[in-house]
Amino acid sequence: MDAMTNVAADAVAPRIERWTATAVAAVSLIVLALIVLAFGPLFLGAGPIHALTRFFVYVILAVVWNALAGYGGLVSVGQQGFFGLGAYAAVRLAGFGLPPYLALLVGAIGVGVLSVPISTFMLRLKEGQFAIATWVVAELALLLVTLDPIVNGETGTSLVQIIAYPAPLRGALTYWAAFGAMTVFLVAMFMLLRSRVGASIQAIRDDEDAAGAVGVEVMATKRILFVLAAFGAAVAGTLWVADTITFQPRSFFSVDWSAYMIFMVLVGGIGTFEGAIVGAIIFFLMETFLGSTGVWYLITLGAASLAFALFLPRGIWGAIQQRTGVNLLPVGYRVRLRRDP
What we know:
The protein is mainly alpha-helical. It is 74% helix and 4% strand. It contains 16 helices and four strands. The strands form two sheets. Strands 1-4 form a two-stranded antiparallel sheet. The protein has a two-stranded antiparallel ribbon with strand order 2-3. Helix 4 (46-71) packs across helix 13 (256-268), helix 8 (167-194) crosses helix 9 (196-206) and helix 13 (256-268) crosses helix 14. It starts with a helix and ends with a strand. The model has no long low-confidence stretch (mean pLDDT 87).
């Protein structure tokens, strides 16, 4: 009788799992795809190289915004401020004589450092106040940048130093810079969210007071996430100006950038690591095939966002995960009964 009881108990005993065979297979395929993409400029034409460079930037923006809002609960509508500041810093540093591609890196790091004191007062705000404050800071940054004589007001300026590189070499270098940055952010965010800091981030999102009560360093953890998200947006801005060469403040500081981030994360699946990547792919495809339709492209984006918010609030990947339990890039643990398939 005891033996039968033990067998029955063992059959329903919970097990805690993180990596599964499906997840290992998915990561292997992703690594293989990244290896192929790393050699892209050696076999792709100028058009695909340019398109993929933009796609890599979208992935960076989606991943960092998803980490900030989806995992951290810090909904920002002002990330375009860091995006624009990154581009501006790169233009300025290149103007001071720094090699253009080094200026991209140093400019993004500078904006990341600048975000530390900004976080000191921004993170004292919560929910709606935090969201509005991020937009206000972005508008202030725009006004300050337009005061710089080199920017020529709203006319803008250019990253002219990068033109010294022949167009094919420039395209390849920008592609590799964007590809490398995307890969680093994907790995860094994945490792961060799987770490103790990642668990703290999600605990703060669920209940900040309770997280603090059990020993989570609330402000320090939120600052790590805020600075990383700002740095990611700044990196994306520097890559964008390297690709477009022209820097127009109204374009780079446009709230459209935050709208794009929200769209990608909302449609893909907020709070899921895979969702941000899925959303970036969908946004990239919509821009590729509908971007030339002008205002109808924007109407389609808005209508799609509204439809997903109303009828599929967990996003595409969130819905798939809910129905199937599939977790390709697990950042947390999962408790399953042994009798589960």
